[in-house]
Design a protein that fits this description.
Layout: E1 4-9, H1 13-27, E2 48-55, H2 65-68, E3 90-92, H3 122-129, E4 133-136, H4 143-156, E5 159-162, H5 172-180, E6 184-187, H6 196-209, E7 213-223, H7 226-230, H8 238-249, E8 261-268, E9 275-285, E10 291-301, H9 304-322, E11 327-328, H10 330-336, H11 346-358
Helix pairs in contact: 1-9, 3-4, 6-8, 10-11
Length: 363
């Protein structure tokens, strides 16, 4: 099979984990864990090649990707450092609303430090690199910047995988534009492999299926990476809270009243680095209206937790391109994203992806 040529906007912790994983799974072919399939329609992790990269931090711009991916403020766990094909130079992206003003109050090693280099011509870079798919790993709240990169994809025929909670693939207007140009798109807001939202969704569905009435629930998350620092600006959290809350509410026949559900990032704890800690509580009533409650604590490295989902999404996106399918890929979006255009229970979405891979489902 030919290689899958991808570009990445935002060389942060998630991008670092993804690139480490592409190299790790290129070597580890037996007893692999973490991927839905090792091979999808003939494509293996080794077939994915990063051909273009964009960032705005002076410690990354102009540097080879294999160096930039480990540069501050990145703090994710390094589980594989033998990076092949890491000589791509990181281009200066367009800042727009990608950096929150409050970050300047924090030490440089924890925050973004904007490069003084002029922004590159993104569309030209995409064309000259031969990129087929652009991954959006910009900070939460980058509404203008995300729309800018989505527009670049529409203008160049490049597919868009939107890993953050800015509503592009789940917005009918944007979705129709990608469909009209026959360009596959996946989004929005990536789910982790075993993260707070997927567990919360699963428990909510379990309670419903077992006849338990959920009265109240919360999900409180803390972390120490730049994503959590960025989200101290609560104005940047609007779409994130919508994405996470709708993901859980969609599992219920009757939504929980807004005053009784709280789901979202809660605080920044620097020493946690890329470790995310989730505190979850569900209060409900069982047989005879007898009250019960569940409390859960989850601790996981945040960025590697989503990388496997994206490797699967990239390969499904390439399969769609091979088949001449454009528009939103509903099956893989529902399986790997918190805010897809159509919310579907995860077990059903998984079966839909299998049908898509086999060619039994168009999208």
């Amino acid at each position: 099979m030919s290689e899958i040529r991808i570009a990445i906007a935002g060389i942060g912790n998630c991008a670092s984990s993804l690139i480490q994983g592409l190299n790790y799974y290129s070597e580890k072919r037996e007893n692999f864990i973490g991927l839905m399939h090792y091979t999808i329609c003939g494509y293996e992790p080794k077939d994915i090649k990063v051909v273009a990269a964009f960032d705005i931090d002076k410690r990354k711009v102009g540097k080879p990707l294999k160096e930039a991916m480990f540069s501050p403020p990145n703090c994710t766990k390094v589980f594989y450092d033998k990076i092949r094909d890491g000589d791509v130079i990181v281009n200066m992206g367009h800042v727009l609303d990608g950096v929150s003003a409050h970050m300047k109050d924090y030490p440089e090693e924890r925050r973004f430090v904007v490069s003084e280099e002029p922004p590159c011509d993104v569309e030209r870079v995409l064309k000259e690199s031969g990129a087929e798919i652009l991954l959006n790993y910009l900070p939460v709240g980058s509404e203008m910047a995300t729309r800018f990169y989505a527009e670049c994809c529409l203008n160049t025929g490049v597919s868009f995988i939107n890993c953050i909670p800015v509503f592009i693939a789940s917005d009918k207007g944007w979705a129709n534009r990608f469909k009209e140009k026959n360009i596959p798109i996946i989004g929005d807001d990536v789910k982790s492999q075993i993260g707070a939202t997927i567990i919360h969704r699963t428990l909510a569905k379990l309670f419903k299926d077992r006849g338990v009435q959920i009265d109240r629930t919360y999900q409180l998350n803390t972390g120490g990476n730049t994503d959590f620092l960025n989200m101290l600006n609560r104005e940047r959290l609007i779409s994130k809270k919508i994405s996470k809350t709708e993901s859980v509410q969609s599992m219920l026949d009757v939504p929980i009243p807004p005053e009784n559900i709280h789901i979202g990032p809660s605080d920044y704890v620097p020493w946690q680095k890329d470790n995310k800690v989730c505190f979850m509580r569900i209060e409900g009533r069982i047989f005879g209206d007898v009250p019960m409650n569940l409390e859960l604590r989850l601790s996981v490295e945040d960025s590697p937790n989503s990388a496997g989902c994206i490797i699967d999404a990239i390969r499904c996106c390439r399969v769609a391109r091979d088949r001449g399918i454009g528009g939103v890929l509903e099956s893989i979006s529902a399986y790997t994203m918190k805010h897809p255009i159509k919310q579907i229970p995860d077990d059903i979405a998984r079966n839909m992806v299998e049908e898509f891979i086999k060619g039994e489902r168009e999208r």
